[in-house]
């Protein structure tokens, strides 16, 4: 693959409404759009790090720094045959998964475009459509969350995930079950808001037949999660704790979870995401694709990886209109039928960049040549 030029654009994209979780409130995305040019084509990726280090240790600034100082120069320093080479090349840089994933994802898109095939096919995906759910933030009252969920159920979302935190947990889940009954596919995400000492409280959730509880304990833990899983019927899903296929192997061996949330950014890119998918498939551990409020570019990457066969649980890849007044891609990401997104058939990510929107959001632009 010839890689001739790389462009970074920093964009501020306001969320339609603020989103609250136990790790804090978010009102906009501040992220980098990465363009990789070669042989007359351009591939796109985006960084999913937040502006603050409250989900993981990376931030938009650290991603920009790592790209400029290390990852872009490394990519220019070696011939690349395929996107897997990028993943191998970057493996000597410790961590900084979201910085690596932003650039690696753009190279995957470029690779698929150069071959004239959809990114989903380049990854080995087989689905033509994917089922999706939606992640719902914390509100002031249970009633407000119930009202939000009513709208999403009406739209056809196939899974409802609600954020919980101490003091906004059991009563919320009970309220949702009272309103929607036991058949609503429902799960809770704690973003590490509890400790093992609160196991008795978490075990109360067992009576509500949740599909899973996501990351109840510390962001860097797999030992206490294994202890908790032994005491709980509800499957534990790990998000923050999994950064690599090795982390996934350790968690599966220890019994720390029964389900894994794969976020392409959190694990350092599509090649690593696929390795985790394959390992989980071999161990009968279902996976689903998490979200980081991606713009349409990251959303398209999420759709592509979700086309792999072991993504059997609806992910958090909701439509563009759930987040943005105007997305940066065209067409916007919308349902092909309720709760379903079609896997694009065009080359690469299958969406075009809307440059008018990008230029209206852009706060910084940089370009690097070989
Ligand atoms: O824990 O899954 C999470 C958003 C930002 C950071 C972490 C998480 C989330 C979400 C929202 O749950 C997912 C989305 O709608 O993109
Ligand atoms: Mg999560």
UniProtKB/TrEMBL annotation:
The gene is menC. It comes from Brevibacillus brevis (Bacillus brevis). GO terms for molecular function: O-succinylbenzoate synthase activity. It catalyses: (1R,6R)-6-hydroxy-2-succinyl-cyclohexa-2,4-diene-1-carboxylate = 2-succinylbenzoate + H2O. Converts 2-succinyl-6-hydroxy-2,4-cyclohexadiene-1-carboxylate (SHCHC) to 2-succinylbenzoate (OSB). HAMAP family: MenC_2. Keywords: Lyase, Magnesium, Menaquinone biosynthesis, Metal-binding. NCBIfam families: menC_lowGC_arch (TIGR01928). Residues 142-235 form the Mandelate racemase/muconate lactonizing enzyme C-terminal domain. Belongs to the mandelate racemase/muconate lactonizing enzyme family. MenC type 2 subfamily. It is an enzyme of class 4 (lyase). This is o-succinylbenzoate synthase. It comes from the Bacteria. Mg(2+) binds at residues 189, 214, 239. SMART domains: MR_MLE (SM00922). Pathway: Quinol/quinone metabolism; menaquinone biosynthesis; Quinol/quinone metabolism; 1,4-dihydroxy-2-naphthoate biosynthesis; 1,4-dihydroxy-2-naphthoate from chorismate: step 4/7. Pfam families: MR_MLE_C, MR_MLE_N. The active site is at 163 (proton donor), 263 (proton acceptor). Its EC number is 4.2.1.113. Its cofactor is a divalent metal cation.
């Amino acid at each position: 693959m010839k890689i001739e030029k790389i462009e970074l654009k920093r964009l501020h994209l306001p969320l339609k409404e603020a989103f609250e979780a136990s790790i804090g409130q978010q009102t906009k995305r501040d992220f980098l759009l990465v363009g990789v040019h070669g042989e007359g084509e351009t591939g796109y990726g985006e960084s999913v790090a937040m502006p603050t280090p409250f989900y993981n240790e990376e931030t938009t600034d650290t991603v920009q720094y790592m790209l400029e100082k290390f990852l872009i120069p490394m990519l220019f320093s070696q011939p690349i045959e395929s996107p897997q080479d990028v993943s191998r090349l970057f493996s000597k840089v410790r961590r900084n998964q979201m910085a690596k994933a932003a650039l690696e994802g753009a190279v995957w898109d470029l690779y698929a475009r150069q071959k004239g095939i959809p990114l989903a096919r380049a990854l080995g995906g087989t689905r033509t459509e994917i089922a999706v759910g939606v992640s719902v933030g914390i509100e002031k009252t249970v009633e407000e969350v119930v009202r939000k969920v009513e709208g999403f159920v009406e739209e056809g979302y196939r899974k409802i995930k609600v954020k919980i935190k101490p003091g906004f947990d059991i009563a919320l889940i009970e309220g949702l079950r009272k309103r929607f009954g036991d058949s609503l596919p429902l799960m809770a995400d704690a973003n590490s808001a509890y400790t093992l000492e609160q196991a008795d409280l978490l075990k109360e959730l067992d009576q509500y037949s949740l599909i899973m509880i996501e990351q109840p304990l510390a962001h860097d833990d797999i030992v206490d999660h294994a202890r908790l899983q032994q005491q709980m019927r509800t499957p534990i899903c790990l998000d923050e704790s999994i950064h690599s296929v090795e982390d996934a192997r350790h968690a599966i061996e220890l019994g720390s979870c029964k389900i894994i949330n794969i976020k392409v950014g959190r694990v350092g890119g599509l090649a690593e995401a696929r390795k985790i998918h394959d390992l989980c498939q071999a161990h009968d551990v279902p996976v689903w694709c998490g979200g980081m409020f991606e713009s349409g570019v990251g959303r398209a990457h999420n759709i592509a990886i979700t086309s792999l066969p072991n993504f059997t649980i609806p992910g958090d890849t909701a439509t563009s209109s759930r987040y943005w007044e105007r997305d940066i891609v065209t067409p916007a990401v919308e349902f092909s039928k309720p709760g379903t997104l079609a896997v694009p058939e065009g080359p690469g990510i299958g969406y075009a960049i809307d440059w008018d929107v990008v230029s209206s959001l852009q706060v910084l632009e940089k370009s690097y040549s070989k």
